[in-house]
Write a structure and sequence with these properties.
The chain has 839 residues and is of the alpha/beta class. Helices cover 33% and strands 20% of the residues. Strands 1, 2, 5, 6, 9, 10 and 11 form a 7-stranded mixed β-sheet that branches. The longest helix is centred in the middle third of the chain and has 33 residues. The N terminus and C terminus are likely disordered. It comes from Streptomyces violaceolatus. Keywords: Glycosyltransferase, Transferase. This is Phosphoribosyltransferase. It holds the Pfam family StiP. GO terms for molecular function: glycosyltransferase activity.
């Protein structure tokens, strides 16, 4: 049997406000007048729904909800309130005992947030929504088709396979109940695998024809189950003959004559600013119901929402009076709750609205009687399984917003998002301020994943390991000081380039600088200490402002470690903060130390972790870290680590968080262990590093007499009082600047690799720091120096002279210098003395 229930009377007063705010004008009148489409039924229908035209071969019209938060920006209290109210009515219908056994299932993409809100209204019910994003290693618990949709296939991917296996009521939530096909397909597919006695279908509006209504009754009798229906309003859509063809013709005619299909845009480049806001999303709380969302998850999210809303409020520009929180396709619930909490935080002084982007192509017509007034078009940015394509944000342009808070998940925080035609750039063309908030994508731990070690060792600290003070840094490494790992440079180079060994399986013989070279180091340090102090201060201030008020600094050993120590010292000097600081290993081609990440996740909130490095070259480590963290999420299910590296210098334009983009001499690049706490570079070798071990490194205690690590740190931090005012101004300028990475360094490296016949970007090392490493650790071929480069290259020129490496001046080089590793594989490529020879 079926039971039909819907709310009588008028919808919430805000539900009747159309996208343009024209009171008394129904936002379906334009379509109704031209195609003869009309709505009949409850008095509330025209307040709840408008009409638009699809670009869809299966259905001409689109019912546009004013209370769903998908196409029409609406008060988040109204959107959330409609879902919760439906959930409470389902709770009353089921009773306490049945409610306690119920599971709620929402439909992607449009009803993911509505379904979650209904689950909140029920109270204890776990929630799952279908998805069109397949997730590696997560088995399907079912699937079904939505025949009229632009993208039809739905997947069910619960982390807990038992979620759908119970016999309690299944509550299915969609935004509209139009033909009943989707619900019938779902129930039929699930009933075969997980039969149960009761289903409840929930929708904002029931728009079935009388014939379709009878089909649900028949189906209920066929499967021998009770099917209840709960809606806010009901009616039918009147469709005259030939409406599909007429609608397609109307869409084609308007799109052919439209001069600006994406809504009004300025002719000049985007003027709005784009900045990130750090949410500090609670650890281990899923971003939504794609893999299931439990009552325990709900409690942790509720506790964290006020603080996250406060961070967004603090990031809003002064004087903002109308703010849109914009979700992302299936990611509807997290931005809805953030918007609702923000609405409560800022009060009546700020008009907060909520909507989301979508895959669905809809015609935009700038008319008060049409539901979709403007359309922004941008490319997909979450690497969708069905390939690239257009995505849309409706009724945002021309909406009078002072700021937009764009909320995406970390899987969608990709270079495509930040491209010149990406969503933030498109928004910035129409809105003065754009804030980007990233929620970590929840990825279930695979069932075959290796068990985590029961206990990882505590970090190594000085003076037992390194010459740094014990509170300056904790090394998440294992001590391999007693193992012989060093090999002659030429042997290592041949093994590395031939593929016979990875560079992290051995260590170069530590370079012992001559007296002349040490004099150069001290002179360089004296000259650049103030410049270094300014860069340290600036990058630390950006981290504190944008990443976390109490960040956990995690240096990428070893070049990042002195920088992490200096950032920690600046935070202590300027703000009285005692920040945790660790050093971890990352290896090109092998990724970051997963056990170190596990230790960090056990001891800190991953959202507070800020990875630190010395400088960027071509951005290889930046890419390596991002890929490694994605893999770690997939294997361990631990989310929240941000792949964005904070660096002292970013000459390659690879990151957003930096102190400077100048390519200058950082004296810590001049030396190896003797400026890095007497620690070697890190080692990853299977016979030394087991599955439950940290990566390894050596402590060169025997070099204590020539250790310059404390001298370097003290020389820079001694300049902190002198540069405070300059740092404040520099940080302010950087925080307001467009720091979007351009990756121009990577492009330059690719060009140089081809121009010099190397054909391997790994053998091109751009920047002063990377060139110095080539001279100290690898077999150099030649150095390219920017014409007119001065004292920053004195030490490189000295090393080049000692090793017989030619220095070639090049005009218009984007870096101060570039080091080229010898592109031949054998020791015959060098002379007997290890000096380079010309090809």
């Amino acid at each position: 049997m079926t039971e039909r229930a819907h709310a009588e009377g008028h919808a919430d007063k805000d539900a009747g406000e159309h996208a343009d705010g024209h009171a008394g004008v129904w936002s379906g009148s334009w379509v109704a007048e031209r195609l003869g489409v009309g709505l009949t039924g409850d008095e509330a229908l025209t307040g709840l729904l408008g009409l638009a035209l699809r670009r869809n071969p299966k259905r001409a019209h689109l019912l546009v909800s004013n209370v769903l938060g998908k196409h029409v920006p609406q008060s988040p209290a109204v959107v959330y309130g409609h879902g919760v109210a439906l959930g409470r009515r389902v709770r009353d219908l089921l009773g306490a005992e049945e409610t306690a056994r119920a599971v709620v299932l929402g439909y992607a993409e449009t009803a993911t947030g509505l379904g979650h809100s209904v689950a909140d209204g029920l109270g204890p019910a776990p929630y799952l929504h279908s998805t069109r994003r397949p997730v590696a290693h997560v088995p399907r618990a079912g699937g079904f088709e939505e025949s009229h949709s632009h993208a039809t296939s739905h997947l069910l991917l619960p982390e807990d396979p038992a979620l759908l296996a119970g016999d309690g009521p299944l509550v299915l939530v969609d935004d509209e109940f139009s033909t009943g096909n989707t619900v019938l397909n779902t129930v039929r597919a699930l009933h075969e695998r997980y039969p149960r006695k009761r289903y409840v279908v929930v929708a904002l509006v029931d728009m079935r024809s009388p014939a379709d209504a009878g089909r649900l009754d028949d189906f209920a009798r066929e499967i021998g189950a009770r099917v209840d229906l709960v809606t806010t309003a009901s009616g039918t859509v009147r469709l005259p003959p030939g409406v599909l063809e007429k609608g397609q013709e109307l869409v084609a005619r308007h799109e052919a004559t439209a001069t600006e299909p994406t809504g009004p845009a300025p002719a000049a480049p985007p003027a709005g600013s784009v900045e990130r806001v750090r949410l500090r999303w609670p650890h281990d709380v899923p971003d939504g119901g794609r893999h299931g969302f439990t009552a325990a998850h709900r409690a942790r999210l509720e506790a964290a929402l006020p603080a996250m809303a406060a961070r967004i409020a603090e990031a809003l520009p002064a004087g903002a009076r109308r703010v849109l929180v914009l979700g992302f396709e299936e990611l509807m619930y997290a931005p809805l709750r953030l918007a609702h909490a923000l609405e409560q935080t800022v009060g009546a002084d700020v008009d907060v609205r909520y909507s989301t982007t979508t895959r669905s192509p809809v015609l935009a017509v700038d008319d008060p009687g049409y539901a979709i007034r403007t359309r922004l078009v941008f490319p997909a940015h979450d690497d969708p399984a069905d390939g690239p394509g257009e995505r849309y944000a409706y009724n945002v342009a021309g909406g009078g917003f002072d700021a937009v808070v764009a909320v995406v998940d970390s899987a969608a925080d990709t270079p495509a998002l930040h491209a010149p035609d990406g969503l933030p750039a498109r928004l910035a063309a129409h809105v003065p301020h754009v804030l980007l908030a990233v929620v970590p994508s929840y990825v279930p731990r695979p069932p075959h994943a290796t068990e985590r070690p029961s206990m990882l060792p505590e970090p190594l600290r000085g003076p037992d390991f390194s010459s740094y003070a014990s509170d300056e840094v904790g090394w998440l490494l294992q001590d391999l000081s007693d193992v012989t790992l060093e090999a002659p440079t030429e042997e290592r180079e041949e093994a590395i380039q031939s593929g016979g060994a990875h560079y992290a399986e051995s260590l170069p013989v530590e370079y012992q600088p001559s007296e002349q070279y040490q004099d150069l180091f001290h002179a360089a340090l004296e000259t650049s200490a103030a410049r270094l102090a300014r860069a340290v201060g600036a990058v630390t201030e950006i981290v504190l402002a944008e990443r976390s008020p109490r960040p956990v600094l995690v240096s990428l050993a070893r070049a990042g470690t002195p920088v992490g120590v200096l950032m920690r010292r600046w935070a202590q000097f300027r703000h009285g903060l005692d920040l945790p600081h660790y050093a971890v290993s990352i290896v090109r081609g092998r990724g970051i130390d997963a056990n170190a990440l596990r230790w960090l996740a056990d001891h800190h909130d991953p959202a507070d972790v800020v990875f630190v490095d010395g400088w960027t070259g071509k951005g290889a480590i930046t890419r390596e870290l991002a890929a490694a963290l994605r893999a770690f999420e997939a294997t361990d299910g631990i989310t929240g680590f941000d792949p964005e590296i904070a660096v002292l210098a970013d000459p390659g334009s690879c990151v957003r968080t930096y102190g400077t983009r100048d390519d200058f001499l950082i004296p810590s690049a001049c030396l190896n262990s003797t400026v890095s706490g007497l620690i070697s570079r890190t080692v990853l070798r299977a016979d030394l590093v087991g599955p439950h071990d940290f990566h390894g490194a050596k402590f060169y205690r025997e070099l204590a007499a020539v250790d310059l690590s404390p001298d370097f740190l003290d020389a820079v931090s001694a300049r902190f009082p002198d540069v405070t005012d300059t740092v404040d101004a520099q940080a302010k300028d950087l925080l307001s600047a467009d720091r979007t990475p351009t990756w121009e360094g990577w492009a330059a490296v690719e060009r140089i690799s081809e121009e010099y016949g190397i054909h391997d970007v790994n053998l091109v090392k751009p920047g002063v720091g990377e060139t110095t490493r080539v001279m100290l650790r690898r077999v150099p071929w030649k150095v390219l120096a920017r014409t007119g480069a001065g004292a920053d290259l004195d030490h490189v020129r000295l090393l080049a002279e000692q090793r017989g490496v030619p220095v070639e001046e090049v005009a218009d080089l984007p870096y101060t210098c570039v080091g080229l590793i010898h592109p031949q594989y054998t020791r015959g490529a060098t002379g007997a003395d290890g000096k380079a020879v010309t090809l």
